[in-house]
Write a structure and sequence with these properties.
By secondary structure, this protein is an alpha/beta fold. Helices cover about 45% and strands about 15% of the residues. The chain is built from nine helices and nine strands. α1 packs across α7 and α5 packs parallel to α6. The N and C termini lie far apart (about 45 Å).
Amino acid sequence: MKKKIIIYGASSLISLELIKLLNQDVSKFFLFCRDRSEIEHFLKSSNFDIEKFSIFEIDLLDIEKNLELVSQIEIIDGIIWVAGFSGNTEEELKNLDLSEKNIRINFVHPMLIINKTLTKMNLNSESFVVAITSVAGLRGRGKNFIYGSAKAALISYLSGLRQKYNQRLTVISVIPGYIKTKNFKIKAPNFLISEPSDLAKKIIKAIKYKHEIIYSSFAWRIIMMIIKIIPEKIFKKFNF
């Protein structure tokens, strides 16, 4: 039986790659994005069956509208949450509204919307929740601790969700490092940077084999394992 799924942040490069990979196994996509024209152009240029896609142009901060739209959707089999917002820590320290925006987009609203989708979901061994978090959520760093704290909360939420539903739902925490997205500007060694297509393939594999925690690369798994065990008195002296 083909699945019906929701993708949030559907115009991102990762989401577009996921749509390509999932197209044969999904009978209905519900796509939430900031700019529907990007999605429409992608679907037409890829010769997809437009009828199987419902596109919702939304503002992630408008939680009431988002919840209303989700409540109108028929029964689904899974949700993939790709949307996020890195923000700017220095500006957020000066402006509480910006701090709140970061926390809402990266934790509060994903949590509320995923909770809502669970009421529309066929909870069984084939149903799934996938959410992209961040290595920033594994240890607080001065450069992005507001963003990191929101992602840490999301990771904890997914862990709780995983335990609560156990065999009735596969919950996948995607913990990426650097991904070459549209606005990627960070200079780093190539082995720390992943292509959206590569991460999409890892996500599909995780859904198929019910893997629960995946990293964008093995290198990041090792790096974060090391970073997490550094004593706090030493770690606070670093600046990276």
